[in-house]
Amino acid sequence: MGMLIIGIVLSLIGIGFYVFEPAWIASSVGAGGAFIGAGVAMIAIILRSLQIRKKRGVIEDERDYRIAEKASHKALTIIIILEGVLLAGIGVTESNIQAQPVVSLLFAVTMLTYVGFYYWYKRQM
């Protein structure tokens, strides 16, 4: 129940960034979106686990942990390769790229890669 409250608080902070647009934040839209996204994700995960617990009683087993381990390892491998290629490309071209869009892209790629591999391994195992 505490994680549900944290998710709601994160979402409210994000909404506050959109509404008040504090001057000390470089991009209130980006920060607000990140907080809202994190809050909504936490709320969805908690509500889903409560629903599963109510239905079946067992949320996870050893198989789920093994699937998560394999998906994490594969996502980490891919993101390390992607970061290396990106770093080499930036170093060779001497481009003047801002950090926030690159970090946001890497975060999105990491999450999508992990989720994709998690469900792929779940079907395979």
Automatic annotation (TrEMBL):
List the keywords (alphabetical): Membrane, Transmembrane, Transmembrane helix
Q: This chain belongs to which protein, by name?
A: DUF2178 domain-containing protein
What InterPro entries does the record tag this protein with? DUF2178_TM
Membrane-crossing ranges are: 5-25, 31-50, 71-90, 102-121
